[in-house]
Amino acid sequence: MWKTNREVTTVRIINTRAAHQLGPVRKAVESRGGTSIDLPVIRIAGKRPDFLPGPADWLVFTSVNSVAQWRRIRPWQGEKVACVGKKTADAAQAAGYPVTLLPPGTEADAEGLAAVLCREASGSRILYPRSARARPVLVRELAACGCEVEAPVVYDTVTDPSAAGRLEREVQNADAILLYSPSAVQACMELLPDGLPPHLLAGCIGRVTEEAFTSWSTNEYCVPEEPDTETLIELLFEKRSSAT
Q1: What is the mean pLDDT of each run of 10 residues along the chain (244 residues)?
Q2: Contact criterion met (CB below 8 Å) for 117 and 101
Q3: Nearest to 111 by CA among 135, 79, 86, 87
Q4: What Pfam family is a match for this entry (predicted)?
Q5: In angstroms, how far is CA 45 from the centroid of its own chain?
Q6: DSSP assignment, residue 238?
Q7: CA atoms of 103 and 116, how far apart (whole Å)
Q8: 206: Cβ–Cβ under 8 A, 6 or more apart, which residues?
Q9: Collapsing DSSP states into helix, strand and coil, what is residue 11?
Q10: Domain ranges of the chain
Q11: Beta strand ranges found along the chain (DSSP E)
């Protein structure tokens, strides 16, 4: 049973991103006059594949973490590069990968990426370094359009149990919580056995995270049309303002 003692002064938003990704979210929250409660609920555990695939026609990234983890494993070998969305593409470009293909912003998920790759790269050999928790849709759809897909696991996202006590305290007095992946939703499920307190607004970065969240909680939430931090935080502030 949740008991809260909330005094509304400024918008307080729990930032659940992994430790190395807290900064940009904090900056976006603070730029609007809010308070970012930095509280990572997951951590990234790098994994080295059992084998290293040979050169491919395309190199495909579906997260900033996959870019960082693959970069430490093998340098770019001249493949064309496709990314799931702008943030991942920005990270890939910064890491030295020349990105040539993105799905439209409103289709920045595995389904959207599979659709553009099947149009542009049907029958190609594709290298897809991925999370251990990646959904199977991308591999399945690419195989269906004749692609040969190598999908080595290069990292996993694991719940940080040390966050439990503080998370239970902070959700009582925060206004909102930011969720950037189904893994973050899963972590909150594990760390909060009583669920979220009813007043807490959730911000989900995209459709897949939204699906994970609504399967767990009935709390009010918002999700931007395109997966963008600034837009998501703006939506949270608008909803919180309309509720006061």
Answers
A1: 50 95 95 96 94 92 96 94 95 97 90 96 96 96 97 96 97 97 97 96 96 97 94 93 72
A2: yes
A3: 135
A4: HEM4
A5: 15
A6: H
A7: 6
A8: 108, 109, 223, 224, 227
A9: coil
A10: 12-41+160-242, 44-156
A11: 12-15, 35-38, 42-46, 58-61, 80-83, 99-101, 125-127, 130-131, 148-150, 153-159, 176-179, 201-204, 221-222
The H-or-E segment that residue 237 falls in is: helix 229-242
Domain 12-41+160-242 has CATH 3.40.50.10090: yes
Q: Characterize 80-106 residue by residue with b for buried, 16 or more Cβ atoms within 10 angstroms of its Cβ, and e for exposed.
A: bbbbbbebbbebbeeeebebebbbeee
Q: DSSP H helical segments within 79-228, as ranges?
A: 86-94, 110-120, 137-144, 164-173, 182-191, 207-214
Q: Which fold has domain 44-156?
A: Rossmann fold (3.40.50)
Task: Specify whether the CB–CB gap between 39 and 64 falls below 8 A.
Answer: no
| pTM for the structure as a whole | 0.86
Q: Decide if 12-41+160-242 and 44-156 have a common fold.
A: yes
pLDDT tens digits along 4-45: 444 445 899 999 999 999 999 999 999 999 999 999 999 999
